[in-house]
TrEMBL record:
Organism: Actinoplanes digitatis
The keyword Transmembrane helix is annotated on this UniProt entry: yes
Keyword Transmembrane helix set for record: yes
Keyword tags: Membrane, Transmembrane, Transmembrane helix
Top-level taxon of the source organism: Bacteria
Record's protein name: Uncharacterized membrane protein HdeD (DUF308 family)
Transmembrane segments: 21-46, 66-89, 110-134, 154-178, 185-207, 236-257
Amino acid sequence: MTELAGVTQARVIRSEWIKFWSLRSTTVTLATAVALLVGIGLLAAGMLGSGDIGGPGPGPGNLGPVAASLAGLTFAQLAFGTLGVLFMASEYGTGMIRSSLTAVPRRLPVLWGKIAVFGGVVLVVGLAAAAIAFTGGQAVIGGGGASWSGTGVARAVIGSAVILAGSGVLGLALGALLRSTPAAISTLFGAMFLLSGVAQLLLPAAWRDDVVRFLPANAGEAFTAVTPDSDALGPWVGLGVFVAYVAAVVIAGAWRLRRSDA
């Protein structure tokens, strides 16, 4: 099938931008994710400042000041990941994907357009929310707080936005691969929030830690930690592993979009 005249990647991105903001779930989910990241962060920072969850240092069993202010990251990941699933999989549920692929017969520009729009929005919104959570959290903690100039602090805050965007794109790619909202959300939740716990329970102790630290949630956490645990990956290795997971699912989703009927 010959691609329709005038179809360019830029125009596909513009079309996906319009579709993204026309979803009823978009504004609500974005606001929910921001509220979770900022609200839980301020709450944890308040508890840390009052001494309810240990001192300001990152010792065992304690939250450091940066980790406390970003304590809502996991919940925001789930919200953004769910929105990513809806942005892709809902088109299969409503049948709109057929219209999208009729307008763009080459198919893959639709996926690239969705990733560009969604990843860009989540990165910007996540960065703003993480910066607010960190700045507000340190104000609540007071004298025991951290500063932007501290070692690893900027990486942790900016890295939180990167991990949020990656989690959202992962959800979108799972929507393209599985084409079912419940299946994609369940897989996302399992991979990001259950897999590490299951591995800790089931794997032999001799090589448990070596495997667990390479799982997606642990790899992302290594990048956002100011001082990674001794048995965790290094920050940039952790980012590379996390991006590799996202890229693998994107490639799988692109393959199915290209090879299978809508």
